[in-house]
Design a protein that fits this description.
The protein is mainly alpha-helical. Helices cover 80% and strands 0% of the residues. It has twelve helices and no strands. α1 (10-26) runs antiparallel to α2 (32-45) and α3 packs antiparallel against α4 (70-88).
Length: 295
């Protein structure tokens, strides 16, 4: 393919260069430092390229998830917001890239929202340790209100993806919306168990996201996008577990695990293993709080 490189568009050439660099890193021909240097140089030489912008979105997203510091994550979030604003307001960028950028921003904003709530849970535990009673009801109400605002933006992006008629974008928006919803609801369940007032979500609360996960699995399966298909399946397993359908969640995990192992999808592999072993945090909390007569 490289011998006929000049026959390809500049976007295709950039993709081939990225693919070549990734392969050379995997087989040990170049180091991670060299890989990053090539990527940075490619960005400098092709700053307005659609492919380079898409790659930059992924890099910032990866940097966000690699950080443990709240402050550093906030810096990456603002960097991502600026880049997405640049893409969305540019008249020469495709609608597909614009929606893709907004989906990635929604995902990162949603996770930051979840991280912030986890910090507040930690603060409330500290208050309790010092004899002060935290406002748990207010905490959950504030998070629910924040989730509604986020879901409104997510629904608008999903509508745009549907209007474009792009099945992978539609599925990506569905999975992003469903996963953040799951994380928020799981945190509320965890909080309720920690303070001795357990809540058990009902199926009707999550049914929309279960239906969307099933649609996303079908879309990604038909498109042959394995990693995204497995992510959608694990979301479905998470949602099933949330409403007490553990056997179905574990069966999905058993289907995902061998594929995740072969492809070395470490995060999906770990999630599947936890489901199969019944070691999710939610399960552990349920076991701890279950009355002795039920054990």
């Amino acid at each position: 393919t490289s011998l006929r490189k000049d026959e390809f568009s500049r976007e295709d050439q950039l993709f081939l260069e990225m693919l070549r660099d990734g392969c050379e890193y995997q087989i040990g021909r170049i180091t991670m430092t060299e890989l990053l240097q090539r990527s940075e140089q490619r960005e400098k030489n092709n700053s307005g390229s659609r492919f380079v912008l898409s790659n930059r979105l992924s890099q910032i997203r990866f940097a966000f998830y690699s950080e443990d510091s709240h402050e550093c994550r906030a810096v990456h979030l603002e960097e991502l917001r600026s880049l997405v604003e640049e893409i969305v307001t540019s008249p020469d960028k495709s609608d597909v890239l614009k929606v893709l950028a907004r989906i990635q921003l929604l995902e990162v904003e949603g996770n930051q929202f979840v991280f912030d709530f986890l910090r507040k849970i930690g603060d409330s535990r500290l208050m309790l340790a010092f004899g002060r009673l935290p406002d748990l009801t207010g905490l959950i109400k504030a998070q629910t209100s924040g989730l509604m605002d986020w879901e409104m933006k997510a629904s608008n992006v999903l509508k745009e993806a549907i209007a474009l008629g792009s099945p992978p974008l539609i599925a990506s928006a569905m999975v992003t919306k469903g996963f953040i919803f799951y994380l928020v609801l799981e945190n509320q369940v965890i909080l309720s168990f920690l303070y001795g007032h357990p809540i058990y979500p009902k199926q009707n609360i999550v049914q929309e996201h279960i239906d969307n996960a099933l649609k996303a699995i079908e879309i990604f399966g038909h498109a042959g996008i394995l990693e995204a298909e497995l992510r959608a399946k694990m979301l479905l397993a998470d949602l099933y577990l949330l409403v007490g359908r553990q056997p179905e969640a574990q069966q999905i995990a058993r289907d995902v695990l061998p594929k995740a192992r072969i492809m070395e999808y470490s995060n999906l592999k770990s999630r599947a293993e936890n489901h199969i072993a019944g070691q999710s945090l939610q399960n552990q909390l349920i076991e701890i709080s279950r009355p002795k007569s039920e054990q």
